[in-house]
Request: fold
Amino acid sequence: MDRLAALDAEVKADADAQQARKAAALSKLRDQRVTQTAERDRLRERQTELVTKIRTPARATAADDPRRSRRSTAGDSERDPLEDLGGALELAAKAHRVKQEMQRKPKKGEKSWIKSGVASLALGPAGWLYAGSLREAVPATVAWFALGGLALKILPWVMMLPVLMVVAPLSAIAGIVYALQFNRNGSRQRLFDRDKDKAKPKQLRGGDRG
Reply:
């Protein structure tokens, strides 16, 4: 009986210890959840404060300038459609001018955009030599053939087809633009370095004769 009583006491002690460990683990999980919830609340408060600080200067500027506030509220609905309509009309006018230039036959001394586009499509940048700026066409042609020869030595012809399918149409578009610029200005014009030409003095500007 004494042994049974001792075993019963040990079993109860083990059960109490397990319950105590479970209770401690549950309390620890609860504390972690509370901490995570508090951190989330603090993070949301910080985000709200940041958004409020960002929006406050915009509201202040609108309040300081009544005209700007009126434009931003009542004028936006009327201004944006007009701006969109003006941009669409300008784009349509440019497209109409380009269409007229492409439809008329080239005069004496002008370049055919069809020939320029076909040559640029078939020969790549070498087709730019027909109507493009020689400062751009010659280096591009040399680089084109050099890179093409190097690529053919390394890669098979089949792997070059996707690249050609992308580069050839772009080259054709550039050739057409070169021809249209030539006919519009009466001389070879640069296509890729026009910003540098704008920065030069007027005495040094002019058509790219070579």
About this structure: The chain has three domains: 1-64, 72-104, 109-204. The first helix runs from residue 2 to 64.
